[in-house]
């Protein structure tokens, strides 16, 4: 279904173009009852991104990162966030970008990766579409310590967790990042069998 006959865009103003682009758009939306309603919305455009969960089905482990996130800090998170490796596409394909991010952040050169889905993480204000991947890993894939790119402000710790421990950390609030929770739940349902072997 196309929405082109239900929206009339009247004015787009760039409010900020520093870290990413913040715009205010004035438009009319034709409601379900046929009435046109004037609206104004701000959208934050940071580009699209990709994220990946490396898993070891034999040892029942996953690799995650721990890092400082300023927006989370100013909203009450007084700790480093535990997250899946991720990055913005920057004109690369989702698979190309996530391979590079995993090598930078986790110090891993992956074999085959599997695309599982993509979704909008905060569609009320952020334009980003996030592409989700999983891939098996083993110690032989390690190329370095990871840690990210210091020149880009990255100061990333690599952590390896048992899948059950990681899932428990969602319940306790130790893992609060949305993309990571989604990937861990996917792993529990699809990658790790209940009897302790790979699904």
Task: Please characterize this protein's 3D structure.
With 199 residues, the protein is of the alpha+beta class. 21% of the residues lie in helices and 37% in strands. The protein has four helices and ten strands. The chain has helices at residues 70-74, 94-106, 163-172, 178-190, and strands spanning 7-17, 21-30, 36-45, 49-56, 61-67, 81-83, 85-88, 114-120, 129-136, 157-162. The strands form two sheets. Strands 4, 5, 6, 7, 8, 9 and 10 form a seven-stranded mixed sheet that branches. The longest helix has 13 residues, at 94-106. It is elongated, with a radius of gyration of 20 Å. Residues 195-199 have low confidence and may be disordered.
Q: State the low-pLDDT regions, or none.
A: 195-199
> Mean pLDDT score, rounded?
92
SS-based class: alpha+beta
Count of helix runs:
4
In whole angstroms, the N-to-C terminal distance is 36 Å
Rg for CA atoms: 20 Å
Strand content: 35-45%
Q: Tell me about the biggest sheet?
A: 7 strands, mixed
Please trace the helix and strand order, writing H or E for each element.
Answer: EEEEEHEEHEEEHH
Q: Helical content, roughly?
A: 10-25%
Shape: elongated
Number of strands: 10
What's the quick description here?
By secondary structure, the chain is of the alpha+beta class.
Name the features.
single chain; 199 residues; alpha+beta; three-stranded antiparallel beta sheet; 10 strands; 37% strand
What's the structural blueprint in terms of helices and strands?
Layout: E1 7-17, E2 21-30, E3 36-45, E4 49-56, E5 61-67, H1 70-74, E6 81-83, E7 85-88, H2 94-106, E8 114-120, E9 129-136, E10 157-162, H3 163-172, H4 178-190
Parallel strand pairs: 4-9
Antiparallel strand pairs: 1-2, 2-3, 4-5, 4-7, 5-6, 5-10, 8-9
Helix pairs in contact: 3-4
